[in-house]
C-alpha cells in the first residue's frame, strides 16, 4: 500500500530552502505571502468608489493593493456620463489598457510625431481596446448626448495614478509624477 504524499507545487529550479509547507501540506515558494496564494473574486458590490478621480468621470476600483493585495496591477471601471469629457491628464509611469464595454467614447491626445502637433481623436465602440503609453497627456470624452460610456481599465501600477493637466501638450508633464 502506498503512502499518500502531499501535492508539491514548486517553481522549476527551487530548492527545499526556498519552500514553505502550507497548513494543507502543499509546498509553495517562500517568497509568496499567504495572501497571494489564492485567487480573489471581486463582485460588483465590492468595487471601491474612493479613487483618484478625473473631473467628469466616475471610477470604481476592482483589482488593486487595497482590494486584493495586488503589487503591480490596478483594474477597474470608468463611467463617463453622456455629453461629458474628462479633464486632460496622464497616468504617470503606468501603462494603461482600456476595454470599451458600452457606449462610444473618444480618446483625445496630441500627436507630436508629424511636422506640427495635431489633436487626434480615436473614436471607439464596444469591444474595442485602447492602449495609453506612460505619461501621454490625453482625455476621454463621451460625445453621445443620451448614453453613458463604460470602460474597463487596467494599469501597470496597483493604484489609480491620475495627474491632471491644463492641456494636452507635454509642458505640464513631469516624468517624476507617478
Which terms summarize this structure?
single chain, 178 residues, mainly beta, Jelly Rolls, 2 domains, 5-stranded antiparallel sheet, 4-stranded antiparallel sheet, disordered N terminus, RmlC-like_jellyroll, Cupin type-2 domain-containing protein, Bacilysin_H2HPP_isomerase
Describe the protein's architecture and organization.
Pfam families: Cupin_2. Residues 79-151 form the Cupin type-2 domain. The chain is mainly beta. The protein folds into two domains: 8-38, no CATH class; 44-172, Jelly Rolls (Sandwich), CATH 2.60.120.10. It has one helix and 13 strands, in the order E-E-E-H-E-E-E-E-E-E-E-E-E-E. The protein has a five-stranded antiparallel sheet. A four-stranded antiparallel sheet has the order 5-11-8-9, with no helix packed on it. The longest helix is centred in the middle third of the chain and has 4 residues, at 65-68. The chain is globular.
Helix content: under 10%
How many strands?
13
Could you say what the CATH architecture of the largest domain is? Sandwich
Structural class per helix/strand content?
mainly beta
Strand proportion, as a percent range, falls in 25-35%
The figure for the number of domains is 2
Order of helical and strand elements: EEEHEEEEEEEEEE
Q: What is the gyration radius calculated from CA atoms?
A: 21 Å
Shape: globular
User: Mind telling me the CATH class of the largest domain?
Assistant: Mainly Beta
How many separate helices?
1
CATH topology of the largest domain, what is it called? Jelly Rolls
The stretches of 5 or more residues where confidence is low (pLDDT under 50) are 1-11
Amino acid at each position: 500500500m502506498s503512502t499518500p504524499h502531499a501535492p508539491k507545487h514548486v517553481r522549476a529550479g527551487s530548492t527545499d530552502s526556498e519552500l514553505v509547507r502550507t497548513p494543507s501540506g502543499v509546498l509553495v515558494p517562500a517568497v509568496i505571502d499567504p495572501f497571494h496564494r489564492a485567487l480573489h473574486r471581486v463582485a460588483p458590490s465590492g468595487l471601491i468608489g474612493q479613487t483618484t478621480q478625473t473631473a467628469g468621470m466616475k471610477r470604481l476600483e476592482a483589482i488593486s493593493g487595497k482590494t486584493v493585495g495586488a503589487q503591480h496591477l490596478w483594474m477597474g471601471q470608468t463611467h463617463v456620463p453622456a455629453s461629458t469629457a474628462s479633464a486632460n491628464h496622464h497616468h504617470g509611469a503606468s501603462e494603461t489598457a482600456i476595454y470599451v464595454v458600452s457606449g462610444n467614447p473618444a480618446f483625445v491626445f496630441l500627436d507630436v510625431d508629424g511636422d506640427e502637433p495635431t489633436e487626434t481623436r480615436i473614436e471607439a465602440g464596444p469591444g474595442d481596446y485602447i492602449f495609453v503609453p506612460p505619461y501621454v497627456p490625453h482625455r476621454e470624452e463621451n460625445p453621445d448626448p443620451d448614453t453613458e460610456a463604460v470602460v474597463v481599465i487596467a494599469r501597470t501600477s496597483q493604484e489609480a495614478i491620475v495627474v491632471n493637466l491644463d492641456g494636452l501638450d507635454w509642458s505640464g508633464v513631469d516624468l517624476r509624477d507617478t
